[in-house]
Amino acid sequence: MMDRILTNKWSVRIISLIFAAILFTSVTSATGNNSLTTTEGVYVDVINNVPVEVYYDKDNMNVTGVPDTVDVTVSGSKGLVQLAKTQANLIAYIDLTNAKVGTQSVKIEIKGLSDRLKGTVNPPTAKVTLAEKVTKKYSVEVELNKSVIADGYEAGSIKTDPKKVSITGSKEILDQIAYVKATVSNEKDQTSDFTTKATISAFDVNLNKLDVEIDPEEVEVTVPVSKIGKTVPLRFQQSGNPADKTVTITSITSEDEKVTVIGSEADD
Q1: Which uninterrupted H or E stretch holds 19?
Q2: Which of 157, 192, 198, 202 makes the best surface tag, with the fewest CB within 10 Å?
Q3: Within a domain: 253
Q4: Residue 24 is part of which domain span?
Q5: With 90 as the cut, is the pLDDT of residue 216 above it?
Q6: Can you tell me the distance from the alpha carbon of 185 to that of 143, in angstroms, rounded to the nearest whole number?
Q7: Is residue 69 domain-shared with residue 143, that is, in the same domain?
Q8: Keyword Signal: yes or no (predicted)?
Q9: What CATH number did the domain enclosing 110 receive?
Q10: In a domain, 67, yes or no
């Protein structure tokens, strides 16, 4: 039975293929990395985190769903594979210059790889959405980090310049905008009015940051700062008499004419 199998041409090929697969697995486990030299002398390695570029009409269209990076498996001679891995010439890209509006699965291509090497992209495709750009105006809400205003002080009515910003993206993305915030975080322990710059971001209802174009990207924020409490005139009322009977108090004065009273609302 064994002799009959070994004399059959296809049986020998199948057995060789099985042994090659076993060898592939054992070499990969032994090296502990992504590189492999097959029995035919072909060297295989993986280039991780290759940036993905996308080509489309950026003036009029908006694209979502494009991955930031992909992994590329490269095979060929060991020297060329190692050279490709050390150089930063490899680029992955998606060409949407002739794509139609809508959601579609597109192939991720690569360039910058030697003609004598073979490259395989992982993942090979991406599900992207191409949509016409829409621009809308949104009011800006200012958010102050807790450390911006000093203890015992409070911020008054905050103003921004400009009051509204233009946000551009697909209609689907713009419909998700719930908050447009300018966060002030670079100021610390302020005790008086101040003006600063703040970067604007757009968020959905769950406070996930949305990928949109904002113009301008920053606004000027003016924050009035005052002490917590109520300012009242300072008046003196005499209580009792001096122990020295020869002393008579005719008047009581102070350099401060007003004082600020600080307390909780329950003390009012």
Answers
A1: helix 9-31
A2: 157
A3: no
A4: 1-32
A5: yes
A6: 9
A7: no
A8: yes
A9: 2.170.120.30
A10: yes
CA–CA separation, 90 vs 47, rounded Å?
A: 9
Residue 259 lies in a domain: no
Mean pLDDT of the chain: 84
The answer to whether the Cα torsion of 20, 26, 29, 31 is positive or negative is negative
Q: Which two tokens stand for residue 93?
A: 């890209």
Distance CA(76)–CA(82), nearest Å, equals: 10
Strand, coil or helix: 136: strand
CA distance 100 to 206: 31
For residues 54, 55, 56, 58, the Cα torsion angle rounded to the nearest 10 degrees is: 80
Question: What CATH number has the domain bearing residue 222?
Answer: 2.170.120.40
The CB-side HSE value for 18 (13 A sphere, CA atoms) comes to: 6
Tell me the C-alpha distance between 265 and 124, whole Å: 63
Residue 199 has pLDDT above 70, yes or no: yes
Measured between alpha carbons, how far is 130 from 96 in angstroms, rounded to an integer?
Answer: 8
Of how many residues is the chain composed?
268
The reported pTM is 0.55
Sign of CA dihedral 195, 162, 170, 181: positive
How many separate domains does the chain show?
Answer: 3
CA atoms within 13 A on the CB side of 121: 22
Residue 86 resides in a domain: yes
> Is the pLDDT score of 237 beyond 90?
no
Asked if residues 121 and 70 have their Cβ atoms less than 8 Å apart, the reply is yes
Residue recorded with tokens 């590329």: 72
Say whether both 86 and 167 belong to one domain: no
The confidence score (pLDDT) of residue 181 equals 96
SS (H, E, C) 191-227: CCCEEEEEEEEEECCCCCECCCEEECCEEEEEECEEE
